[in-house]
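User: I'm putting together a teaching handout on how multi-component assemblies are represented. Below are the sequence lines for each component of a complex, exactly as they appear in our records. Could you produce the 3D structure of the whole assembly as structure tokens, so the students can see both representations side by side? Please keep the chain order the same as the input.
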Amino acid sequence: MPELYGAGAALFDFDNDGDLDIYLVQGRCLTRDCVPNPEHVDRLLRNDLDGDGPVFTDVTQSSGIDARGYGMGVMTGDIDNDGWTDLYVTNWSAPGEALPGNQLWRNRGDGTFENATATSATGDVGWSVAAVFLDLDPDDLLDLYVGRYLNVSRGLHRRCTTDLGGPDYCNPTVFTPQTDRFFHNRGNGRFEDITSKTGLDSALPLAGLGAVALELTDDAGVSRPALYVANDQFINQLWILGEDGTWVDQATTYGLAVNGRGAAEASMGIAVGDADEDGDFDLLLTHLDGETHTFYRNDEVAYTDVTDAVGLAASSLPMTGFGVGFHDFDGDGHLDILAVNGDVKVIPDLLLQGDTFPFHQRDQVFRRRAEALVYDEVSATAGPAFARSEVGRGAAFGDLDNDGDVDVVITTNHGPARALIQLGQPEPSTWVGIRAVIPVGDGAVRDALGTILRVHRDGQPSLLRRVATDGSYASASDPRVTVRLGQAAPAVDVEACWPHRGCEWFRRVATGRYTTLVRGQGESS
Amino acid sequence: MKVRVAWCLIWFAIVMACAKAPEDVPEATSSDTPTSTTASELLPIPDIDTTQLAPDLAARLEERRRALDAASTAEAHGELGRLAHAYDLAFLARPAYENATRLAPDEPLWPHLLGHLERQRGDLQAAARAFERVIEHAPDDRLARTQLARAYLDLGRDDDAESVLRDILSTDPNDAAALAAIGRIAARRGRWGDAAAFWETALEAAPGATSLHIELQGAYAQLGDDTKARFHFGRAGRGQIPVADPRLDAVRALRDDDLGNLRARAAAALGADQLDQAIDGYEAVLERAPDDADAWQDLAQAKARRGDSDAFDTYARAVELRPDNPRLLFDYGSRLGNAGQPAAAIPLLERAVALAPEFPEAHHNLGSALARLGRLDEAEAAFTRVIDLDPRHDGARHLRAVVLTELDRHAEAIDMWRGVIERNPAWLEPRLRLADALSEENELTAAIQQLRAVVERAPNRAITWANLGILLEDNGDTEQALDAYRRALMADPNLHPATRRLIALLVGQGQCDEAARVLETLPRAQRGDATSQVSGCVG
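Assistant: Of course. Below is the structure of the complete assembly, with chains in the same order as your input.
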């Protein structure tokens, strides 16, 4: 099974030169008799952005990254507050396998990385896909959630078949799910496994594939860190951190455990965005074919499955979705959707037409109507990339060419990674780019993951965005926020609400370029 | 190496362009539909390699193909299409349906099913065209109109959808699905009052469709009517409006008796812990495929979970068919071990670990079975292997420590439990065992500390309170021992040994009144020498 679930990509600025570099996670040969191929290692591509756009150079070897696991996903964050973004790579492994488990690669700041898995104590043997960096306590150190999927090893192999009778990959329910892990950052690059202490193992393990950090307000009006975990074929979990420092799953209370028909779906990827522009974050989850890309609208007290009403049901029904994101691709100020698809079960139609890898599907783009929260699929007019049929998995979103619109790197299983760049350049007065950071000493800063930004516009609702690298599937996106305003303005006012530290105003943030907002340098609000 | 990325255009048209027609199926319209179709006007039906199919499905497809070769009628094409459709073989079903439609243009069934097929494939434009073809020939076809409206809605063609929906409502004003859909169109246009009115009527027509309350709550919230919004929020549920389509149901029914379908249904029942249905399902599979080892294995698992006495016979049959499957051997052996048959479990688990030496749970359960038979050295080796394979396996560490105490290796056991407890502070069993081991080593203070940690987390564990009392007493801490015994009896007043110890201690402390009161709580048969102790109490 593991060969069908990877692999993801990260967009991050590892050399702090102001543009996005790419990290690509790789799988490898899994049969017992295969000869390891030295080419099958994760790749680091440095972006040397010039006037014609991004130019990538493979710097894997010089970076010191030698990641030869059976790769699944990757997450980015500066774990030691040195101003340089580090990498956490999730892998499939099993006891007795000559394959590494999850790995932490620490960015030394000189273009090289060191394997800090052992010293950080964040290694884990098993099968992980999702990971999330979030600051659980007000110590400004990023803690780490690691999702774990199924207990699968060669010894546990089972034979499964298609509806037509031939061999197929198994349904995940034939294997045992594994308990997720949570690591507390103790400083100095060391973590402590607080899975039990925080009660994350208090519920049955449930095959998590996607995860995002959220912040939810409890009955007393207090904002609490939360983790939403998308589980494959099991109910989803919404872990909210209680006052006593333990996680409690409240997905059922919030309407996020099952879909509107009461069914647990095969959840894979997660997108977070204020799609209905009412000042809170809605969620979109991708699923198996026969299910939908399910849209959960946040209605203050709970979430409601409104997939049918927003027009996503019919067009997503035939697709098995993985990577997904809410981004304003057409610059009208409303959040559109890009979903990456590819099946995990043999597609009978393709198999019987002689396809040797019968899992491929089209990716999809959905455009939000200006007048209402309704999505129309516009894949047919979104460019040739969306006519191609591949086994899509990861999607890392970010502005690769720093021109003010959001591009995407899509990874495929059994195929190449693809960088899709939005052509053309938005009018400078119609977008604002923000990097929200925390000062970490010696003039260094790190991305303030978890910060919520409200961008104020004249005569129109404010735009709510989050500073995050998590979400989608197995991938880490640009921590910068690129906001298309849907109107022209020389500058905008931005309110930044920092994790654990209240909110600040930043007045007259210039449009047409990226601006760094440093915590503590705004006006208190 | 320098790599310049390949540019891929993402471009959004403000107005969505019409999707092009499918390449391999020429579009048919009413004007070019022949009244008498010749063979050359039919689409070729692709050949398929039936060697990749389950034998029963291959036979059914070949039978329909032969019928088609014998007589190229609309029905023969349509029936082949229906079987292919049932198995998601769209490349075969599409031309078959298309040919059936061309051969019998007045028959609504084939374009109707083609519409469903296109919708399932995600081609909503083609789905709409197919349903339009039904309507062209059968304008009153209610099933097709409902589906056509749905396709228009999904395509964002709200005006077209509304027109079809109003036609439906003109003949049946209480069609709940049409009312709900037209309400949705009103909502998309921001006409929340109209939307609410349509949804209220739909709810009257289909009161079980409790999901409509969600829509109504949203509509009334938009209208500023908080009272009604709250009313509907409180009644929101998951009930949907039933939309019957017997034509599609008949296609689905073609798979009802299909082996793969039976397997899938049984597996789903097993996954949902519906054991009766799972067992019936697997038995039905095995009637058709008596050598299906997976089905035997899953049936055995279901029977074991239901507590059936013949579960082990079923496992034995599965092992006969698949003697080298470590997972099966593990399941069977583990169940035998849990059922108190360690001697029978051991050979199965030994084979499992021989076949899959990196399978920690198999080593673990083998260790448990060996320990139960008193084969302690072998058990200890099995648990050690688990820990080598999975250093986080604290379950194995705990059991290894239990075995080590049996082997009188107390110091090693104590170290092991301490590590387990550090990582799993809420797990009580290792603390209790550690306390035992520490008291054996006469480390009373440390043992007391462990038992205190247990009762902090589980304050109603009477026996632990009592054991804590004994350790405190041994440690000379009489007052705290008294308190511990009292707590034990609060948690379980029938814990008579604790009552007797409390009486003895109270007498020793000269607290005769309380000793007498406590004695009264003790049944006469349980008093032993407590009565004489109290009688001789000097206060």
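A couple of points students might notice: The first strand of chain A starts at residue 9 and ends at 12. Chain A has a mean pLDDT of 92.
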